[in-house]
Amino acid sequence: MTHPMYRASIPVFQQMLGSLKSILHKAQAHAAEKKIDDQVFLQARLAPDMFPLIRQVQIAADFAKSVAGRLAKAELPEFADNELGFDDLQQRLDKTLAFLSGLDQAQFTGSEGLEIVLRPGTPKEKKLQGDHYLFAYGLPQFFFHVTTTYAILRHHGVELGKKDYMGQY
Length: 169
What we know:
Radius of gyration: 17 Å
Largest sheet: 2 strands, antiparallel
Order of helices and strands: HHHHEEHH
Helix content: 55-70%
Strand content: under 5%
CATH architecture: Up-down Bundle
Number of domains: 1
Oligomer: single chain
Shape: globular
Number of strands: 2
CATH topology: Four Helix Bundle (Hemerythrin (Met), subunit A)
Structural class: mainly alpha
CATH superfamily: dinb family like domain
Strand order of the largest sheet: 1-2
CATH class: Mainly Alpha
Number of helices: 6
């Protein structure tokens, strides 16, 4: 039987990162077909005070690896946030998926009660129990950035639908 915290995190992250990869492929193809510079999409945002698409993808990948990694008590890989184009973002997502694939469900034993400390040593420090960390913080944050990426591209004319967002399940 699969550990419930593993089942609630790893397959979800994998599905949605796969979706993100497909969405980015469609955006890149759309840009090429319409002769639009890739940077128009990569730097696009829905509002002036939001991060651009490229940062939304980076953050989605970061939440997937950090939430899963902390729950699995694994050493987190560091990514440099130096992606400049669609191909770079695809590589970032591939590295994240590879990390997730390397986590074993046994590593999640006891993770529901694990204490996770956000922003340790700062005035914004917050301590969460593992299950609360996953369900009330990690997954909502992850979905926010995946959804925002989808919305930016849809808003800018890339033909996407719910099926694209959902990916393979």
